[in-house]
Model the fold of this input.
Amino acid sequence: METILGLDLPTWWFLVIGGLITGYGVLDGFDLGAGALHLFFKKEESRRLVLNAIGPVWDGNEVWLVIAGGALFAGFPLVYGVVLSTFYVPFMLFLVALIFRAISIEFRSKETWLWWRKMWDISYTVSSTGITLLLGLVLGNLIHGLPMNKEHEFTGTLLTFFNPYAILIAFTTLSLFMLHGAIYLVMKTENRLYTRLTVIVNNCSKFFILCFILTSMATLIYVPHMTHQFKTHPQLFGLPMLAVLILLNIKRNIDARKYYTAFLYSSVITACLLILFAVGLYPNIVISTTDPAYSISIYAAASSVKSLKIMLLIAAIGTPMVIGYTTFLFWTFRGKVKLNEMSY
Done:
């Protein structure tokens, strides 16, 4: 099989899609976490400040999700079809939640009525929390595996998705995004709201540490196939060790109130956990619990070599542009949030 820098094309596309999903998790993760925390702020000014903290960047961050979906369709059309048809109901709920999050942000400031703003505040928090839990639920089921037959058709029911492991992953995702979002908000605020957020950040860190420990134990006990690559390649044990060290550094920097460094570490641990997920699955993308032979590998699902080469070239050109745009956006809106007549 043709290779580039020692890696075959399906593996390159596996890395590209993983990178795009990681970019989405890091960037939209703090948006979703901020939304999940929104109702913890009681004052109108506080809610406006935290909303405007993510106001300039939230829609741009979602671009990474769109690109990841397109890349999955281009690189692994079989996986795209199987995953979207299997998770049809969760993905429909996900899209509805995305819509309500967007209109909640945009509609809230259109009227000054108390009931109007309260309604959209609740909608914003529910939709942000729902998106996060649904993402975690899908991720948890992909890690755990799905009941599939030889034709790669899902043979379970809707209740199959709500297994204990997937639910644990969903709440771990929520705890991570809440921590990520809280750290971002504390960087963007000042005075009394800053003080309030320092308490929230500390509580979110405890929530995430608990979920991290439980998820690690559950994965080792109940999802043994995720450790196969680590047994085959012992040097990969550096990744989980790195995740633990990063977690400790997040807590250390939060205690020292070095929130910019803590945000960097929370971004890295988001990426690190997704890398661990990818390493555990490789070379499969969808694992069958019915029979391992029914699992879908990157080689069975990949597009033609010509398609992969053309799309890899497009990705090589487009991805730096998206990174550049994202960097420019964050640089432009750096600093503390100030309310004005243009604010939400």
Remarks:
- The CA atoms of residues 112 and 226 lie 51 Å apart.
